Amino acid sequence: MTDLKGLCEPQFAEVEEALAASLGKDDVGASVAVYLDGEPVVDLWGGYADADRTVGWERDTLTCVNSTTKNMTALCALVLADQGRLDLSAPVAAYWPEFAAAGKERLLVRHVLSHTAGLPDLPGPTAVEDLYDWQRMTAGLAAQAPAWEPGTAAGYHALTFGFLIGEVVRHITGRGLGAFFAKEVAKPLGADFHIGLSPADDHRVAPLIPPPSTTDEFTAGAPLGPDGTRREHTGVTVRVRDANSVAWRRAQIPAVNGFGNARSVALVQSVLANRGMAGGVRLLSPQGCEPAWQEVFRGEDRVLRSPMSWTVGFGKFGNMFGWGGWGGSLVASDPDARMTVAYVMNQMLDRERQEDNRGMEIILAAYSGLR
Which one of 67, 270, 309, 329 is the catalytic residue? Predict the structure, then answer.
């Protein structure tokens, strides 16, 4: 069995077994965490932080979790809503006046959060480097017309989600999304998660490893749906080497460039599963958490090309809500069980070539601990 470090309560032994099995098969380095009632019951890590398997994955190892970041960005909006500073049912233009252009006067904040805004594509031809230019991205989105009547259809906003929510947050608070998250969420919880990374933390980063039989030129291409289908157009090509670059770490791309590990991801998201509290810290009121699991759209997602259920900020899967990232990371919360499960790794898998059940096996193992 692969040597693991950390905490695992006896009733969750199957989670430890699942992580060990994954490290013995597909994973190079990974971490898993389970929070119950806002407290850790599993906090495990093991394997290596590099492809050559020379550097161990440590307790404070971080990696880019790609779209798992969206869970954090959505939480920032819910925090502002709970504070009475953001009305989820108000037009985006009420906070960001320039956004009213091109027929978007009535496009609501909840439309953006539920991927029903009709703005899934970046404005114009876009290079990866353009993603680092906040003003260019947000000005382009403000001028863009929606691809459908907002609220009538859903289409996964793979990259635009973070710019849209982040600009609303900036207009309300005067701070970028990463700075707001750091002060209002990560600091009070003591969570080691970062949207945009400082140079001081570079030494802790485990670079993403491209899927087997590929190189760091492997591209996200387009978002993958739950059934593994890939969309044809996104307007930008992101490669593994882009996500591993220093420029990516320093940028603000709140849909995709969060850095953390399973402990920090699960800790933050457990706030929503535990009615607003984690580790004795209250971040939201119980009512402020409810939009996270209340379905606002169900049907065919035009981007993912598969059936989806979206809440205000999250994907909904049965009793659980959350989302995952390109390559395999994920977080899922069950508000009935008050449980949150997170899985973060450095070895990416390509779901078009290889089935990836790593995160799901961890979730199923966590439920076994509730029996």
Answer: 67
Angle at the Cα of 284 from the Cα atoms of 283 and 290, rounded to 5 degrees: 140
Q: Within the chain, where are the H helices?
A: 13-25, 70-82, 109-113, 134-143, 160-173, 177-181, 187-189, 240-243, 246-250, 262-273, 286-289, 358-368
Distance in angstroms between the alpha carbons of the first and the last residue of the chain: 25
pLDDT, averaged in runs of 10, over the chain (371 residues): 89 98 97 98 98 97 98 98 98 98 98 98 90 97 98 97 98 98 98 98 98 93 45 73 98 98 98 97 98 97 96 97 97 98 97 90 97 82
What does the radius of gyration of the chain's CA atoms come to, in whole angstroms?
A: 19
Can 213 be counted among the known catalytic residues? no
Rounded distance between C-alpha atoms, residue 59 and residue 44, angstroms: 8
> Using CA atoms, how far apart are residues 168 and 119, in angstroms rounded to an integer?
15
